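Assemble and predict.
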Amino acid sequence: DGHAGEGAAPFFLHFDARELDQAPVGYMLEDRYLYRAFLDAMEASDKITLLHETQVTGQQVVPGGVEVSLSTGKTLTAKLLIGADGRRSGVAERAGITREGWGYGQTALVAAVEHEKPHNGIAQQFFMPTGPLAILPLKGNRSSIVWSETEENAKTISALNDEDFLAVLRPRFGDFLGEIKLAGPRFSYPLNLTLAKAYVAPRVALVGDAAHGVHPIAGQGLNLGLRDVAALAEIVVEAMRRGEDIGAEDVLERYQGWRRFDSTSLALGMDTVNKLFSNDNPLLKAGRDLGMGLVQAIPGLRRGFMQQAAGLSGPLPRLLQGRAL
Ligand SMILES: Cc1cc2nc3c(=O)[nH]c(=O)nc-3n(C[C@H](O)[C@H](O)[C@H](O)COP(=O)(O)OP(=O)(O)OC[C@H]3O[C@@H](n4cnc5c(N)ncnc54)[C@H](O)[C@@H]3O)c2cc1C
């Protein structure tokens, strides 16, 4: 917790994976590799047909199912349509599911950075008044940065050339990893919170960001989505085994009941942490420093936070426990 160039305040939190029975707390995966692995797995499956370069353009509930229109002019019919189409989910919109949320007035600047010294598998997060800077370990002497700034600052910083961008980053990043340079292209993402008011509608279930787009402050967005997928798969498979209609309202309600509370509480928790830290108010600063000092001093609390971040808390779907459906 501090200001760029001044170093961290004396209060900090250190989470050590060795305090958990199950280490490490998490893995950092670059999504380009994850995408490729998912696509390869889908291509290898004889139960999945991948339709490249195809958009879903419409959907309609029909007797006993749902009909989906594609940009190729084709239609598909199924018992259940799963909306996994991100924060601006067309599936949700067409199903009449409205959303609530707000913009953060922040933009995340994202890039891979190469550094002189090893990171030793440690992720760092610095909280500054304009937003947090996360430094997340990748393979070798490389880290991914997720640097949240006010929209105005982010616009100015994005327009800089690489050398000037690094000159602004260096005092924030600090010198604990030695000299730094960019190791790939820079991206920017405007940040907002967007929660679907329902996760299900007739013959429709939402998963991932289509259901809940959260602040990346704790790197939990995709993890929440994976929990949705695992929970929905478990409920659908159980329903099939019992001979139930997998798109029936009571089956979908079980999914919503399982996932909605978990995602909403995490989304609002991340929202509070961001609001609490992304400011220069001396009273709030005293409060958060006291809070961090307390959590740092109490091992049970520290473990609780780590378990939450590692996705080990709450009723875990079987797939996330590594068990078969
Ligand atoms: C800066 C930043 C950093 C992040 N860091 C982390 C992190 O460290 N860890 C983590 O767990 N999460 C992180 N997240 C969150 C994570 O990126 C998202 O939660 C995740 O990508 C959501 O996956 P998704 O598949 O639900 O949605 P998306 O990734 O948005 O994918 C939706 C897909 O649907 C497709 N689509 C949309 N409309 C249609 C249509 N009509 N027809 C066909 N296809 C369609 C889109 O093309 C897209 O491919 C971060 C997010 C941001 C912004």
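The chain has eight helices and 15 strands.
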